[in-house]
Amino acid sequence: MPRTGQPAIRLVGSVQRAFAVIDALAEVDTELGTNEIARRTGVNPSTVSRLLATLVAGGFVEHVQESGRYRLGPRLLQLGNVVLGRLDLRQIARPHLLALVDSTRETATLSAAGQRDAVTVDFAQSPFSVQSVAQLGRPSIAHATATGKVLLAFGGRALPPGPLKSYTKRTIAKRSELTAELDAVRERGYAYNFGEREDDLHAIAAPVWGNHGELAAILGVQGPASRFDRQAMEAVVEPLLEHAREVSLELGWAGLVGEAVER
């Protein structure tokens, strides 16, 4: 068969099912058992079991001995780091994360867009003994975090399908209210999270633009609700936006937002 220079259009079913297993594990913050993964993916449990064994062998999934359940493995983070490393995103943003911690005394985070949610790819920790602990590879739930709202508002993403889960009493779980919140995020250029995913965590986040005016990353600052209250968050707005702008310029942004992120 002559080469066309284009990828084949016939897909491998077993690989697609493996991707579905990985997606199921990425959608939750907890470990999942074989039957639960089968229910979420619609794949036969025996097939899921074989897929999990293969993914565990490759490091894409981890088997937790204590619970007998599964979670995403370090190989995914390693591959993500390779991609991001080639973009030099973390190298460019790292000094800005450190500068944000110096000026705000709270934890600064860098996130990149994932398939559904934004994912933490780097962070600089607060110097306080009481601090919010960021985690590499942790997804920021789209409707329940400041970073997730930035992704929805500026990343050209549709609202999450189906009912919106309430993580705390402050989670915006009504689609109409979330739509209004995203309009406000676009108008002011950054997003808040007041205990919407975890009761004791507040955060603020702003977009980082790429050289084509697309959403390239998300810069955030987070801290314990007891200390990082609204007044403290307002004081963070100016340095956060300034550092987000500087990272954008270093990525080649020309000061214009591309058509892909206009709403």
Keywords for this entry:
single chain, 263 residues, alpha+beta, Arc Repressor Mutant, subunit A, 2 domains, six-stranded antiparallel β-sheet, two-stranded antiparallel sheet, 8 helices, 41% helix, 18% strand
Which CATH-level-2 architecture of the largest domain? 2-Layer Sandwich
Low-confidence stretches: 259-263
Number of strands: 8
- Overall SS class: alpha+beta
What summary fits the major beta sheet? Answer: 6 strands, antiparallel
Number of domains: 2
Descriptive notes:
The protein is of the alpha+beta class. It has 2 domains: 13-72, Winged helix-like DNA-binding domain superfamily/Winged helix DNA-binding domain (Arc Repressor Mutant, subunit A, Orthogonal Bundle), CATH 1.10.10.10; 78-261, Beta-Lactamase. Helices cover 41% and strands 18% of the residues. The chain has 8 helices and 8 strands, in the order αααββααβββααβββα. The chain has helices spanning 13-26, 34-41, 45-57, 74-87, 89-104, 146-154, 175-188, 230-250; strands at residues 61-64, 69-72, 107-113, 118-124, 139-140, 191-194, 201-209, 215-224. The strands form 2 sheets. It has a 6-stranded antiparallel beta sheet, sandwiched between helices. A hairpin with a 4-residue loop joins β1 and β2 (69-72). The longest helix is centred in the last third of the chain and has 21 residues, at 230-250. The protein is globular and about 55 Å long. The termini are far apart. The model is unreliable at 259-263 (pLDDT under 50).
